[in-house]
Amino acid sequence: MPISPAVRPTILVVDDSPENLNLMVELLKDDYNVRVAPNGEKGLALAQSDHPPDLILLDIMMPGIDGYEVCRRLKAHAVSKKIPVIFLTALNEVQDEAKGFEVGGVDYVTKPVSVPIVQARVRTHLNLYDQTRHLESLVRQKTLELENTQDVTIAGLATLAEYRDNETGGHILRTKSYVRLLAQNLKGLSRFRGELDDEVIDLLYKSAPLHDIGKVGVQDRILCKPGKLTHEEIVEMDRHVVFGRDAILEAEKLLGRSGDQYSFLRFAREIAYSHHERWDGCGYPEKMKGDAIPLSARLMALADVYDALISKRVYKPPYSHKQAVDLIVKGKGTQFDPDIVDTFVQLQQEFFNIAMKLVDHEEERVTLPKEAVRLL
Question: Where is coiled-coil annotated (predicted)?
């Protein structure tokens, strides 16, 4: 019983002989939707259209573009590269067959064709292609599930920080935007090319909200103190980086990825623990220096300081944008990575725009533009 045309696979036959095209249509039309092309150029156009075939039967000896070149171009194109290609040809030397496999063919049938063999080969390779697509679909589904799990894990941890400190909500939104902006503009520099790509930048953006998660372990009397902290209170406040690292390590442990450099929480762990390190080695907790500080933490260090400067806190009023920029430039090569500072200066208008869009307090919206309004 013929298969319904609505669900039948589509076979594309590419051959310069009308007789061969007619023959293949007659052989396959009861079970498949059959499309034909009289030359390589037309075959490529049909294979790379919005409705590509499920399998291609391809002649080799054709005028213009021969079958080998057609197959090479099929395999080099995103739309057609995975479509199985069966060569149909009068060439029957071993080297001809080897060349067909070399350019990407999956099978090789010599003319004059045997009807049962052609039908069996078509069936076999369509089944294999269906299985491949099914497996790819499962991989995509599992990848999406994994990404969703990662996002939910990070978001859940970040929520802890938001509940702990009512100043954190806008700060989280702004700093992760600053980090992404810096990373996107640094990835083209040779120095950072091996560390930054789109996947890493996306993880940095998602991980940045966890930079102060360790503050959940700091006492309220210290975290919310409106005045200057004592030495003992500063020491306690500084421990938030250890609390943050340990919290993320515990999450990784529960996920079976404790301390794994390939863990999706790796950047969150680096940021939480090292974003108070300084380029000159005078930061904390490890007094790391220069490139020994993870890039993720170096990016977060600048983003965090800029936002802290321009934001209202219980212990200080907001600084102007210009004051914040001047202070960060002053810290180039001492507190901050020089290249990151240079990129920040180039992007200062965009930093300012993010700050204004995600402002926490209305008085900050009024205060900031006094010296920065000319930037708009």
Answer: none
